[in-house]
């Protein structure tokens, strides 16, 4: 899943019927803007988890919903600067407190 | 979903039968040209929403239609320059007027 | 779908049985070489439309054919230089003659 | 599948019901951070195999689970520096001891 | 499908049960290392065809096998330097001997 920032709602009046009236959000994936179906009620500025591939359809509500990117969760706390430090391999950026394994 | 600009129709006389006579459009995804099946009747210059992955098939009309990129909506208003400003993190580029949440 | 150029046939004697004897072509996607199943009889030098994702399987002939990239059409006329001009936003490169909408 | 490094667990209280209570991990794919569903109980620092596409759903436990990236295995030994050497074409980086073919 | 070079087998003792005991190979896709399920018995140094997307599952042996990258064929002859020349548009690099169309 992708970690994206919600930028703003997107209005598309002329759309296929299968899209129904679900909310669409412009999200920022790195430096690329994409459109995601919003399944959680996110607002601009939220950091969210976006699921793609065929899973985006089920996440949007039904197997036949034609989405390839769906917002499935709002991240509680996300610090993009600390994240960049960790990605660069700086071990002191975040002590990574594991919460107990996946068992 | 991707935010693309419609460039021009594409003519392909020698194509597989499953493609039928649906309109194909050359669209610009960033700086890459791709081909999308047009499900909404877009015209060159339109900014559109393109859906990929397995959802592109259903969006094109049926589960067995062999598309991996389908135009599913025309964006009402899209300002590519303001979008670039927002992507760069400039908060004044667009005040991001949310239209009421996803409820 | 991708706009690719056919480079040459690919020979792979040791392949899984599900691949059968269908023709494989090396195609150029931008500057990356990929392998596509040929469903239309393209020849080296042709500019073609390649479909990916799960649609590539059906396009190759059956739902269980294990392709993720299938040549589904030969483009009648493609000028890669004019295409680059259009991608760069040069409006005079190609006047984009629409052929009547998607109705 | 991707070779990723586990960075830290991700907390998302407001998430779609289909996500259940499965553990989510922030993983590093090259220099990009992504979110994966953890099916093996990995801990920060582990090098893991992540599966994407539609296979991520089944790997997460059921065909209808909405994941597009699932941790499916922990790599026994992974030396990222030796890996870079091999990727650069240095034949002495790792003698590549094959373990007997796929039969 | 991707054209990859096999680097070495990958050992992952702690893996999900669905992965069974199939051989995993580290392959080089351009300059990125990925993991592929080996369905043909390739050895390090082989140039192979890797299939992704949902087709990787069927290629690995069954619809429910959780692979997103499967080695489906060994390329008989592959010259990476000539390939680079062709990708750069050098027509003399390889005369591209077509083997008779897709009929």
SSE topology sketch:
The structure is a homopentamer of 103-residue chains.
Chain A: E1 2-9, E2 14-15, E3 24-29, E4 32-38, E5 47-52, H1 55-59, E6 69-74, H2 80-87
Parallel strand pairs in A: 4-6
Antiparallel strand pairs in A: 1-3, 1-5, 3-4, 5-6
Describe this structure in words.
The structure is a homopentamer of 103-residue chains. The first copy, chain A, is mainly beta. Chain A has a domain at 1-11 and 31-77: OB fold (Dihydrolipoamide Acetyltransferase, E2P), CATH 2.40.50. In chain A, 13% of the residues lie in helices and 34% in strands. Chain A has two helices and six strands, in the order βββββαβα. The first copy, chain A, has helices at 55-59, 80-87; strands spanning 2-9, 14-15, 24-29, 32-38, 47-52, 69-74. Chain A has a five-stranded mixed β-barrel with strand order 1-3-4-6-5. The longest helix of chain A has 8 residues, at 80-87. At the A-D interface, strand 5, helix 1, strand 6 and helix 2 of A face strand 1, strand 2, strand 3 and strand 4 of D. Strand 6 of chain D pairs antiparallel with strand 2 of chain E, so a sheet runs across the interface.
Share of helical residues of chain A: 10-25%
Largest beta sheet of chain A, briefly?
5 strands, mixed, barrel
- Distance N to C terminus of chain A: 21 Å
What would you say the CATH architecture of the domain at 1-11 and 31-77 in chain A is?
Beta Barrel
State mean pLDDT of chain A (0 to 100 scale).
Answer: 87
Summed up, the helix count of chain A is 2
Indicate the proportion of strand residues of chain A: 25-35%
The CATH class of the domain at 1-11 and 31-77 in chain A is identified as Mainly Beta
**Given the helix and strand composition of chain A, which structural class is it?**
mainly beta
Radius of gyration of chain A from the CA trace?
Answer: 16 Å
Strand order, largest beta sheet of chain A: 1-3-4-6-5
């Amino acid at each position: 899943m992708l970690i994206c920032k919600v930028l703003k709602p997107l209005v598309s009046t002329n759309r296929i019927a299968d899209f129904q009236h679900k909310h669409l959000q412009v999200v920022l994936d790195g430096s690329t803007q994409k459109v995601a179906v919003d399944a959680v009620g996110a607002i601009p500025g939220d950091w969210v988890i976006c699921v793609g591939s065929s899973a985006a359809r089920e996440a949007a509500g039904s197997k036949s919903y034609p989405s390839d990117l769906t917002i499935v969760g709002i991240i509680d706390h996300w610090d993009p600067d600390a994240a960049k430090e960790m990605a660069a391999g700086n071990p002191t950026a975040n002590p990574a407190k594991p919460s107990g394994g996946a068992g």
